[in-house]
Design brief:
Shape: globular
Helix content: 40-55%
Largest sheet: 6 strands, antiparallel
Radius of gyration: 30 Å
Distance between the termini: 55 Å
Length: about 525
Protein backbone atom coordinates (compact mmCIF):
# COMPACT_ATOMS: atom_id res chain seq x y z
CA UNK A 1 0.00 0.00 0.00
CA UNK A 2 2.93 2.34 0.70
CA UNK A 3 4.50 1.55 -2.68
CA UNK A 4 1.17 2.26 -4.39
CA UNK A 5 0.76 5.56 -2.53
CA UNK A 6 4.31 6.71 -3.30
CA UNK A 7 4.01 5.81 -6.98
CA UNK A 8 0.51 7.10 -7.71
CA UNK A 9 -0.72 9.56 -5.09
CA UNK A 10 2.04 11.50 -3.35
CA UNK A 11 3.13 13.71 -6.24
CA UNK A 12 -0.45 14.81 -6.95
CA UNK A 13 -1.14 15.43 -3.24
CA UNK A 14 1.96 17.60 -2.95
CA UNK A 15 1.01 19.60 -6.02
CA UNK A 16 -2.49 20.16 -4.66
CA UNK A 17 -1.17 21.27 -1.28
CA UNK A 18 1.32 23.66 -2.89
CA UNK A 19 -1.46 25.26 -4.93
CA UNK A 20 -3.57 25.56 -1.77
CA UNK A 21 -0.70 27.16 0.17
CA UNK A 22 0.08 29.65 -2.59
CA UNK A 23 3.46 28.09 -3.45
CA UNK A 24 4.58 27.06 -6.92
CA UNK A 25 4.62 23.23 -6.98
CA UNK A 26 7.82 21.26 -7.21
CA UNK A 27 8.95 21.05 -10.83
CA UNK A 28 7.35 24.37 -11.78
CA UNK A 29 9.18 26.49 -14.33
CA UNK A 30 9.35 29.28 -11.73
CA UNK A 31 11.91 27.28 -9.73
CA UNK A 32 14.36 27.27 -12.66
CA UNK A 33 17.21 29.70 -13.27
CA UNK A 34 15.51 31.10 -16.38
CA UNK A 35 12.82 32.70 -14.17
CA UNK A 36 15.09 33.86 -11.37
CA UNK A 37 14.82 37.53 -12.37
CA UNK A 38 11.28 37.40 -13.75
CA UNK A 39 7.96 37.88 -11.98
CA UNK A 40 7.12 34.75 -9.96
CA UNK A 41 3.95 35.77 -8.13
CA UNK A 42 1.27 33.23 -7.27
CA UNK A 43 -2.41 34.05 -7.83
CA UNK A 44 -4.23 32.20 -4.99
CA UNK A 45 -7.22 31.04 -7.05
CA UNK A 46 -7.13 27.58 -5.47
CA UNK A 47 -7.17 29.00 -1.95
CA UNK A 48 -9.96 31.42 -2.80
CA UNK A 49 -12.15 28.62 -4.17
CA UNK A 50 -11.36 26.36 -1.20
CA UNK A 51 -12.23 29.13 1.29
CA UNK A 52 -15.49 29.65 -0.60
CA UNK A 53 -16.25 25.95 -0.13
CA UNK A 54 -15.37 26.15 3.58
CA UNK A 55 -17.75 29.09 3.96
CA UNK A 56 -20.50 27.11 2.23
CA UNK A 57 -19.84 24.17 4.59
CA UNK A 58 -20.14 26.48 7.60
CA UNK A 59 -23.45 27.91 6.35
CA UNK A 60 -24.84 24.47 5.52
CA UNK A 61 -23.93 22.71 8.78
CA UNK A 62 -23.77 25.42 11.42
CA UNK A 63 -26.51 27.93 10.64
CA UNK A 64 -29.01 26.24 12.97
CA UNK A 65 -28.68 25.41 16.66
CA UNK A 66 -28.79 21.61 16.20
CA UNK A 67 -25.91 20.17 14.20
CA UNK A 68 -27.77 16.86 13.76
CA UNK A 69 -31.19 15.38 14.42
CA UNK A 70 -31.81 12.01 16.07
CA UNK A 71 -34.96 10.15 15.07
CA UNK A 72 -36.56 6.78 15.69
CA UNK A 73 -37.99 4.47 13.06
CA UNK A 74 -41.06 3.74 15.21
CA UNK A 75 -42.81 7.00 16.06
CA UNK A 76 -45.69 5.09 17.73
CA UNK A 77 -43.47 3.54 20.43
CA UNK A 78 -43.15 5.93 23.38
CA UNK A 79 -39.93 4.38 24.72
CA UNK A 80 -38.15 4.77 21.37
CA UNK A 81 -39.44 8.33 20.99
CA UNK A 82 -38.07 9.10 24.46
CA UNK A 83 -34.73 7.51 23.48
CA UNK A 84 -34.61 9.65 20.33
CA UNK A 85 -35.14 12.85 22.32
CA UNK A 86 -32.46 11.89 24.84
CA UNK A 87 -30.07 10.84 22.08
CA UNK A 88 -30.76 14.09 20.24
CA UNK A 89 -29.76 16.14 23.28
CA UNK A 90 -26.67 14.05 24.09
CA UNK A 91 -25.41 14.08 20.50
CA UNK A 92 -25.77 17.83 20.09
CA UNK A 93 -24.34 18.40 23.57
CA UNK A 94 -21.13 16.53 22.76
CA UNK A 95 -20.80 17.98 19.26
CA UNK A 96 -21.07 21.51 20.62
CA UNK A 97 -19.41 21.18 24.04
CA UNK A 98 -16.79 18.41 24.13
CA UNK A 99 -15.83 17.80 20.48
CA UNK A 100 -14.27 20.72 18.53
CA UNK A 101 -16.89 20.06 15.89
CA UNK A 102 -16.62 23.24 13.83
CA UNK A 103 -12.86 22.93 13.29
CA UNK A 104 -13.20 19.19 12.70
CA UNK A 105 -15.88 19.53 10.01
CA UNK A 106 -14.22 22.45 8.23
CA UNK A 107 -10.85 20.66 8.43
CA UNK A 108 -12.40 17.49 7.01
CA UNK A 109 -13.91 19.49 4.15
CA UNK A 110 -10.51 21.06 3.45
CA UNK A 111 -8.81 17.65 3.36
CA UNK A 112 -11.46 16.22 1.03
CA UNK A 113 -11.32 19.27 -1.25
CA UNK A 114 -7.51 19.24 -1.40
CA UNK A 115 -6.56 15.56 -1.40
CA UNK A 116 -9.77 14.03 -2.69
CA UNK A 117 -10.23 12.02 0.53
CA UNK A 118 -10.52 12.62 4.27
CA UNK A 119 -9.79 10.03 6.97
CA UNK A 120 -11.15 10.20 10.51
CA UNK A 121 -11.34 7.92 13.53
CA UNK A 122 -14.23 8.00 16.01
CA UNK A 123 -13.65 6.66 19.52
CA UNK A 124 -14.52 7.25 23.17
CA UNK A 125 -11.85 8.97 25.26
CA UNK A 126 -11.74 8.03 28.92
CA UNK A 127 -8.91 9.25 31.15
CA UNK A 128 -8.21 9.65 34.87
CA UNK A 129 -5.62 11.88 36.49
CA UNK A 130 -3.06 10.69 39.07
CA UNK A 131 -5.67 11.11 41.84
CA UNK A 132 -8.15 8.81 40.13
CA UNK A 133 -10.47 11.63 39.07
CA UNK A 134 -12.09 11.28 35.66
CA UNK A 135 -10.85 14.15 33.50
CA UNK A 136 -12.00 12.94 30.08
CA UNK A 137 -15.14 10.96 29.34
CA UNK A 138 -16.51 11.89 25.94
CA UNK A 139 -16.51 10.90 22.24
CA UNK A 140 -13.77 12.09 19.92
CA UNK A 141 -13.46 12.57 16.19
CA UNK A 142 -9.83 12.72 15.08
CA UNK A 143 -8.81 13.73 11.56
CA UNK A 144 -5.92 11.66 10.20
CA UNK A 145 -3.40 13.00 7.66
CA UNK A 146 -3.94 11.16 4.40
CA UNK A 147 -0.29 10.07 4.21
CA UNK A 148 -0.62 8.25 7.57
CA UNK A 149 -3.32 5.75 6.49
CA UNK A 150 -2.81 2.53 4.56
CA UNK A 151 -5.62 0.74 2.77
CA UNK A 152 -5.59 -1.93 0.09
CA UNK A 153 -5.78 -0.26 -3.33
CA UNK A 154 -7.76 -3.23 -4.72
CA UNK A 155 -10.66 -2.95 -2.25
CA UNK A 156 -14.23 -2.03 -3.19
CA UNK A 157 -14.38 1.69 -4.11
CA UNK A 158 -17.94 1.99 -2.73
CA UNK A 159 -16.88 0.85 0.79
CA UNK A 160 -13.08 0.99 1.15
CA UNK A 161 -13.12 0.90 4.96
CA UNK A 162 -15.33 -2.18 5.17
CA UNK A 163 -13.90 -4.13 2.22
CA UNK A 164 -10.13 -3.64 2.64
CA UNK A 165 -8.45 -6.72 4.17
CA UNK A 166 -6.39 -4.39 6.35
CA UNK A 167 -6.42 -0.85 7.72
CA UNK A 168 -3.18 0.52 9.13
CA UNK A 169 -2.80 3.91 10.76
CA UNK A 170 0.75 5.18 11.19
CA UNK A 171 0.48 7.12 14.42
CA UNK A 172 3.25 9.50 15.62
CA UNK A 173 3.78 9.24 19.38
CA UNK A 174 6.29 10.65 21.82
CA UNK A 175 8.50 8.00 23.42
CA UNK A 176 7.40 9.23 26.86
CA UNK A 177 3.75 8.53 25.94
CA UNK A 178 4.68 5.04 24.76
CA UNK A 179 6.47 4.40 28.07
CA UNK A 180 3.34 5.56 29.94
CA UNK A 181 1.34 2.99 28.01
CA UNK A 182 3.85 0.32 28.96
CA UNK A 183 3.46 1.23 32.65
CA UNK A 184 -0.34 1.11 32.56
CA UNK A 185 -2.25 -2.03 33.48
CA UNK A 186 -4.81 -3.64 31.21
CA UNK A 187 -8.09 -3.95 33.16
CA UNK A 188 -8.98 -7.17 31.35
CA UNK A 189 -5.72 -9.11 31.83
CA UNK A 190 -4.10 -7.34 34.78
CA UNK A 191 -0.85 -7.14 32.80
CA UNK A 192 0.94 -4.24 31.14
CA UNK A 193 -1.21 -2.59 28.48
CA UNK A 194 1.76 -2.57 26.06
CA UNK A 195 4.82 -4.80 25.92
CA UNK A 196 7.85 -3.35 27.66
CA UNK A 197 10.59 -2.30 25.26
CA UNK A 198 13.95 -0.78 26.06
CA UNK A 199 14.81 2.79 25.10
CA UNK A 200 17.19 1.41 22.49
CA UNK A 201 14.44 -0.72 20.95
CA UNK A 202 12.09 2.26 20.87
CA UNK A 203 14.77 4.40 19.23
CA UNK A 204 15.30 1.70 16.61
CA UNK A 205 11.58 1.84 15.82
CA UNK A 206 12.04 5.34 14.46
CA UNK A 207 11.36 4.85 10.77
CA UNK A 208 13.59 7.12 8.73
CA UNK A 209 11.21 7.05 5.76
CA UNK A 210 8.52 8.64 7.93
CA UNK A 211 10.76 11.63 8.67
CA UNK A 212 10.95 14.49 6.18
CA UNK A 213 7.71 13.19 4.67
CA UNK A 214 7.27 15.09 1.39
CA UNK A 215 3.48 15.38 1.67
CA UNK A 216 3.66 16.68 5.24
CA UNK A 217 6.41 19.16 4.36
CA UNK A 218 4.39 20.42 1.38
CA UNK A 219 1.48 21.00 3.75
CA UNK A 220 3.75 22.95 6.12
CA UNK A 221 4.30 25.45 3.32
CA UNK A 222 7.53 27.41 3.16
CA UNK A 223 9.16 25.82 6.19
CA UNK A 224 12.23 23.78 5.39
CA UNK A 225 12.09 21.49 8.42
CA UNK A 226 9.64 18.68 9.08
CA UNK A 227 7.62 19.32 12.25
CA UNK A 228 8.07 15.60 13.08
CA UNK A 229 11.85 15.99 12.93
CA UNK A 230 13.65 14.29 15.83
CA UNK A 231 16.78 16.45 15.81
CA UNK A 232 16.73 17.55 19.45
CA UNK A 233 18.50 16.45 22.59
CA UNK A 234 15.60 15.34 24.81
CA UNK A 235 15.20 11.75 23.65
CA UNK A 236 12.04 11.21 25.74
CA UNK A 237 10.27 13.49 23.28
CA UNK A 238 11.51 11.77 20.18
CA UNK A 239 8.76 10.76 17.79
CA UNK A 240 8.36 7.08 17.00
CA UNK A 241 5.79 5.69 14.61
CA UNK A 242 3.28 3.31 16.16
CA UNK A 243 1.14 1.27 13.80
CA UNK A 244 -2.53 0.64 14.63
CA UNK A 245 -3.29 -2.51 12.69
CA UNK A 246 -6.70 -3.95 11.81
CA UNK A 247 -6.22 -7.21 9.89
CA UNK A 248 -8.93 -9.46 8.45
CA UNK A 249 -8.15 -13.11 9.25
CA UNK A 250 -10.64 -15.54 7.68
CA UNK A 251 -13.52 -13.11 7.93
CA UNK A 252 -12.80 -11.79 11.43
CA UNK A 253 -10.96 -8.57 12.20
CA UNK A 254 -8.06 -8.56 14.66
CA UNK A 255 -6.51 -5.49 16.26
CA UNK A 256 -3.01 -4.85 17.62
CA UNK A 257 -0.27 -2.21 17.94
CA UNK A 258 3.32 -2.42 16.72
CA UNK A 259 6.32 -0.13 17.19
CA UNK A 260 7.13 0.52 13.55
CA UNK A 261 7.30 -2.88 11.92
CA UNK A 262 9.93 -4.27 14.27
CA UNK A 263 8.25 -4.90 17.64
CA UNK A 264 4.84 -6.06 18.81
CA UNK A 265 3.37 -3.72 21.41
CA UNK A 266 0.16 -5.71 21.96
CA UNK A 267 -1.01 -9.18 21.06
CA UNK A 268 -3.75 -9.42 18.39
CA UNK A 269 -7.26 -9.51 19.86
CA UNK A 270 -10.62 -9.63 18.06
CA UNK A 271 -11.57 -6.11 16.99
CA UNK A 272 -15.02 -6.30 18.58
CA UNK A 273 -13.38 -6.59 22.01
CA UNK A 274 -11.85 -3.13 21.54
CA UNK A 275 -14.32 -1.53 19.12
CA UNK A 276 -17.70 -3.32 19.57
CA UNK A 277 -19.27 -1.36 16.69
CA UNK A 278 -16.65 -2.41 14.15
CA UNK A 279 -13.94 -0.50 12.34
CA UNK A 280 -13.88 3.03 13.77
CA UNK A 281 -12.67 4.75 10.61
CA UNK A 282 -14.54 6.72 7.94
CA UNK A 283 -13.24 7.67 4.48
CA UNK A 284 -15.04 10.62 2.84
CA UNK A 285 -14.72 12.70 -0.31
CA UNK A 286 -16.35 15.51 -2.31
CA UNK A 287 -15.82 14.13 -5.85
CA UNK A 288 -17.16 10.75 -6.95
CA UNK A 289 -14.87 8.83 -9.31
CA UNK A 290 -16.22 5.39 -10.07
CA UNK A 291 -13.91 2.43 -9.40
CA UNK A 292 -11.30 4.60 -7.67
CA UNK A 293 -10.52 4.26 -3.98
CA UNK A 294 -8.67 7.60 -4.10
CA UNK A 295 -10.84 9.89 -6.27
CA UNK A 296 -9.77 13.17 -7.80
CA UNK A 297 -9.91 16.32 -5.71
CA UNK A 298 -11.26 19.69 -6.78
CA UNK A 299 -7.74 21.06 -6.41
CA UNK A 300 -6.59 18.37 -8.82
CA UNK A 301 -9.29 19.17 -11.39
CA UNK A 302 -8.38 22.86 -11.38
CA UNK A 303 -4.58 22.59 -11.23
CA UNK A 304 -3.90 23.41 -14.90
CA UNK A 305 -6.14 26.48 -14.76
CA UNK A 306 -4.29 27.61 -11.62
CA UNK A 307 -0.98 27.15 -13.42
CA UNK A 308 -2.19 29.09 -16.46
CA UNK A 309 -3.57 31.89 -14.25
CA UNK A 310 -0.12 32.27 -12.68
CA UNK A 311 1.55 32.28 -16.09
CA UNK A 312 -0.76 34.96 -17.55
CA UNK A 313 -0.43 37.23 -14.51
CA UNK A 314 3.36 36.98 -14.32
CA UNK A 315 3.86 37.52 -18.05
CA UNK A 316 1.61 40.57 -17.88
CA UNK A 317 3.70 41.99 -15.02
CA UNK A 318 6.88 41.34 -16.99
CA UNK A 319 5.32 43.03 -20.04
CA UNK A 320 4.32 46.13 -18.05
CA UNK A 321 7.78 46.45 -16.55
CA UNK A 322 9.44 46.07 -19.96
CA UNK A 323 7.08 48.64 -21.49
CA UNK A 324 7.84 51.12 -18.71
CA UNK A 325 11.54 50.27 -18.36
CA UNK A 326 12.88 49.52 -21.82
CA UNK A 327 15.82 47.31 -22.60
CA UNK A 328 18.69 48.60 -24.76
CA UNK A 329 21.14 47.31 -27.31
CA UNK A 330 24.56 48.75 -26.39
CA UNK A 331 27.68 48.49 -28.56
CA UNK A 332 30.49 46.99 -26.47
CA UNK A 333 32.92 49.64 -27.74
CA UNK A 334 30.58 52.62 -27.33
CA UNK A 335 31.92 53.56 -23.91
CA UNK A 336 28.38 53.84 -22.43
CA UNK A 337 27.70 54.19 -18.70
CA UNK A 338 25.67 51.01 -18.35
CA UNK A 339 24.86 51.46 -14.65
CA UNK A 340 23.20 54.81 -15.34
CA UNK A 341 21.31 53.22 -18.24
CA UNK A 342 19.94 50.47 -15.97
CA UNK A 343 18.73 52.89 -13.27
CA UNK A 344 15.96 54.29 -15.51
CA UNK A 345 15.50 57.30 -13.21
CA UNK A 346 14.08 60.70 -14.34
CA UNK A 347 16.66 63.39 -15.02
CA UNK A 348 19.65 61.04 -15.06
CA UNK A 349 22.28 61.69 -17.72
CA UNK A 350 23.76 58.66 -19.47
CA UNK A 351 27.30 59.21 -20.68
CA UNK A 352 28.39 57.55 -23.92
CA UNK A 353 31.20 57.97 -26.46
CA UNK A 354 29.01 56.82 -29.37
CA UNK A 355 25.36 57.93 -29.43
CA UNK A 356 24.66 55.57 -32.32
CA UNK A 357 25.91 52.64 -30.22
CA UNK A 358 22.78 52.66 -28.00
CA UNK A 359 19.40 51.52 -29.35
CA UNK A 360 16.16 51.17 -27.38
CA UNK A 361 14.18 47.91 -27.73
CA UNK A 362 10.43 48.61 -28.04
CA UNK A 363 7.90 46.21 -26.50
CA UNK A 364 4.19 46.03 -27.31
CA UNK A 365 1.74 46.55 -24.45
CA UNK A 366 -0.45 43.41 -24.39
CA UNK A 367 -2.16 44.00 -21.04
CA UNK A 368 -5.64 44.33 -22.54
CA UNK A 369 -5.56 40.97 -24.29
CA UNK A 370 -3.99 39.34 -21.22
CA UNK A 371 -6.81 40.66 -19.03
CA UNK A 372 -9.36 39.20 -21.45
CA UNK A 373 -7.58 35.86 -21.26
CA UNK A 374 -7.53 36.12 -17.47
CA UNK A 375 -11.30 36.71 -17.39
CA UNK A 376 -11.86 33.55 -19.38
CA UNK A 377 -9.55 31.59 -17.11
CA UNK A 378 -11.46 32.90 -14.08
CA UNK A 379 -14.76 31.72 -15.52
CA UNK A 380 -13.32 28.29 -16.39
CA UNK A 381 -11.89 28.02 -12.89
CA UNK A 382 -15.24 28.92 -11.32
CA UNK A 383 -17.00 26.38 -13.51
CA UNK A 384 -14.84 23.48 -12.34
CA UNK A 385 -14.64 24.46 -8.66
CA UNK A 386 -18.24 25.61 -8.20
CA UNK A 387 -17.25 29.00 -6.78
CA UNK A 388 -18.84 32.34 -7.67
CA UNK A 389 -16.28 35.14 -7.64
CA UNK A 390 -16.52 38.86 -8.25
CA UNK A 391 -14.01 38.53 -11.09
CA UNK A 392 -16.53 36.41 -12.98
CA UNK A 393 -19.17 39.07 -12.40
CA UNK A 394 -16.90 41.77 -13.73
CA UNK A 395 -16.22 39.88 -16.95
CA UNK A 396 -19.92 39.38 -17.80
CA UNK A 397 -21.22 42.89 -18.37
CA UNK A 398 -24.39 41.85 -20.14
CA UNK A 399 -25.50 39.74 -17.16
CA UNK A 400 -24.21 41.62 -14.14
CA UNK A 401 -26.19 44.76 -14.90
CA UNK A 402 -29.45 43.09 -13.80
CA UNK A 403 -30.52 41.24 -10.66
CA UNK A 404 -31.90 38.40 -12.76
CA UNK A 405 -28.62 38.07 -14.58
CA UNK A 406 -26.74 37.88 -11.28
CA UNK A 407 -29.06 35.11 -10.09
CA UNK A 408 -28.49 33.17 -13.31
CA UNK A 409 -24.73 33.50 -12.87
CA UNK A 410 -24.78 32.30 -9.25
CA UNK A 411 -27.32 29.52 -9.76
CA UNK A 412 -24.95 27.11 -11.50
CA UNK A 413 -22.18 27.60 -8.97
CA UNK A 414 -24.65 27.19 -6.08
CA UNK A 415 -25.88 23.85 -7.44
CA UNK A 416 -22.35 22.52 -7.94
CA UNK A 417 -21.23 23.65 -4.48
CA UNK A 418 -24.30 22.09 -2.91
CA UNK A 419 -23.68 18.87 -4.83
CA UNK A 420 -20.15 18.74 -3.40
CA UNK A 421 -21.60 19.33 0.07
CA UNK A 422 -24.13 16.54 -0.53
CA UNK A 423 -21.34 14.12 -1.51
CA UNK A 424 -19.36 15.16 1.58
CA UNK A 425 -22.47 14.66 3.74
CA UNK A 426 -23.23 11.20 2.38
CA UNK A 427 -19.66 9.88 2.43
CA UNK A 428 -18.34 11.39 5.67
CA UNK A 429 -20.61 13.59 7.81
CA UNK A 430 -23.57 11.23 8.28
CA UNK A 431 -21.34 8.20 8.85
CA UNK A 432 -19.24 10.02 11.45
CA UNK A 433 -22.26 11.38 13.32
CA UNK A 434 -23.81 7.90 13.26
CA UNK A 435 -20.69 6.38 14.81
CA UNK A 436 -20.55 9.09 17.49
CA UNK A 437 -24.22 8.41 18.36
CA UNK A 438 -23.43 4.68 18.80
CA UNK A 439 -20.53 5.58 21.08
CA UNK A 440 -22.83 7.77 23.18
CA UNK A 441 -25.41 4.98 23.43
CA UNK A 442 -22.74 2.53 24.58
CA UNK A 443 -20.48 4.58 26.86
CA UNK A 444 -22.34 7.65 28.19
CA UNK A 445 -22.41 7.43 32.01
CA UNK A 446 -22.13 11.07 33.15
CA UNK A 447 -25.13 11.43 35.46
CA UNK A 448 -25.11 15.22 35.22
CA UNK A 449 -25.31 15.16 31.44
CA UNK A 450 -27.94 12.39 31.50
CA UNK A 451 -30.05 14.43 33.93
CA UNK A 452 -29.87 17.45 31.63
CA UNK A 453 -30.87 15.22 28.70
CA UNK A 454 -33.89 13.92 30.63
CA UNK A 455 -34.89 17.46 31.54
CA UNK A 456 -34.53 18.66 27.95
CA UNK A 457 -36.55 15.71 26.60
CA UNK A 458 -39.20 16.18 29.35
CA UNK A 459 -39.12 12.43 30.02
CA UNK A 460 -41.28 12.52 33.12
CA UNK A 461 -43.84 14.99 31.79
CA UNK A 462 -44.30 13.26 28.43
CA UNK A 463 -43.39 9.61 29.06
CA UNK A 464 -43.62 9.10 32.83
CA UNK A 465 -39.92 8.16 33.06
CA UNK A 466 -37.87 9.79 35.80
CA UNK A 467 -34.35 8.79 34.67
CA UNK A 468 -32.41 7.76 31.60
CA UNK A 469 -31.85 4.00 31.55
CA UNK A 470 -29.67 1.84 29.32
CA UNK A 471 -32.80 0.58 27.58
CA UNK A 472 -33.78 4.11 26.60
CA UNK A 473 -30.28 4.88 25.33
CA UNK A 474 -29.90 1.67 23.32
CA UNK A 475 -33.19 1.85 21.42
CA UNK A 476 -32.90 1.79 17.64
CA UNK A 477 -32.06 5.35 16.59
CA UNK A 478 -30.80 6.97 13.43
CA UNK A 479 -29.29 10.37 12.70
CA UNK A 480 -30.58 12.84 10.16
CA UNK A 481 -28.52 15.67 8.72
CA UNK A 482 -30.69 18.58 7.61
CA UNK A 483 -28.61 19.63 4.64
CA UNK A 484 -30.21 19.83 1.21
CA UNK A 485 -30.03 21.88 -1.94
CA UNK A 486 -30.19 25.66 -1.34
CA UNK A 487 -28.59 24.97 2.06
CA UNK A 488 -25.88 27.51 1.28
CA UNK A 489 -28.35 30.28 0.39
CA UNK A 490 -30.30 31.53 3.45
CA UNK A 491 -32.87 33.42 1.37
CA UNK A 492 -33.66 30.38 -0.75
CA UNK A 493 -33.85 28.19 2.36
CA UNK A 494 -36.42 30.51 3.93
CA UNK A 495 -38.32 30.75 0.65
CA UNK A 496 -38.51 26.96 0.26
CA UNK A 497 -39.55 26.54 3.89
CA UNK A 498 -42.31 29.11 3.45
CA UNK A 499 -43.49 27.38 0.27
CA UNK A 500 -43.55 24.00 2.06
CA UNK A 501 -45.50 25.39 5.01
CA UNK A 502 -48.00 27.14 2.74
CA UNK A 503 -48.50 23.88 0.87
CA UNK A 504 -49.09 21.55 3.82
CA UNK A 505 -50.60 24.12 6.22
CA UNK A 506 -54.22 23.73 5.10
CA UNK A 507 -54.02 19.95 5.65
CA UNK A 508 -52.69 20.10 9.23
CA UNK A 509 -54.81 20.12 12.34
CA UNK A 510 -54.12 22.69 15.07
CA UNK A 511 -51.10 21.64 17.11
CA UNK A 512 -49.68 19.23 14.52
CA UNK A 513 -47.04 21.71 13.36
CA UNK A 514 -43.99 21.97 15.64
CA UNK A 515 -43.61 25.73 15.83
CA UNK A 516 -40.35 25.49 17.81
CA UNK A 517 -38.67 23.47 15.05
CA UNK A 518 -39.96 25.84 12.38
CA UNK A 519 -38.58 28.78 14.37
CA UNK A 520 -35.17 27.09 14.59
CA UNK A 521 -35.01 26.69 10.82
CA UNK A 522 -36.18 30.24 10.08
CA UNK A 523 -33.92 31.95 12.60
CA UNK A 524 -31.07 29.61 11.65
CA UNK A 525 -31.37 30.64 8.00
CA UNK A 526 -31.30 34.27 9.16
CA UNK A 527 -28.02 33.62 11.01
CA UNK A 528 -29.26 33.48 14.63
CA UNK A 529 -28.66 29.72 15.28
CA UNK A 530 -32.06 29.45 17.03
CA UNK A 531 -34.96 31.68 18.03
CA UNK A 532 -34.82 30.94 21.74
CA UNK A 533 -34.00 34.46 22.90
CA UNK A 534 -36.80 35.91 20.77
Amino acid sequence: STDYMDANLRRQWERNVSNLMGVHPQGSKYHGNDYRRRSRLFRPKTRAAERDFEAAIAVAFFSSHDVATVETEHANKPLEVAGAKVGHYLLNHHLTKTVPWFKTVVGAAQDAWTYGIVWSEQSWEYKKDHNGKVVKDHPTCRLIPVENMRVDSACNWVDPVGSSPYLIEILPMYITDVIDKMNQTDDRTGQSAWAKLTMGELQSARRIEHEDDSTRMAREGRFKRDRMDNNHEVTAYDIIWVHKNIIDVRGRDYFYYTAGTQYMLTQPVPLDEVYPDGRPYVLGNVVIDTHRVNPSSVANLSQDLQSQANSIANQRIDNVELAMNSRYLVDRASGTDREALKRSAPGVAVLTDDIDGVHELKFSDVTRSSYEEQDRLNMDFDDITGSFSTSSVGSNRQLNETVGGMNLMSQGSDVLTEFQIRVFTETWYELVVGQILKLIQRYETDQRVLALAAESAQLFQKFGVDQVTDKILTEGLSTTISVGFSATNPEKRSEKLRMALDTVGPYLRPGELDRAEVSKEVFGAAGYRDGLRF
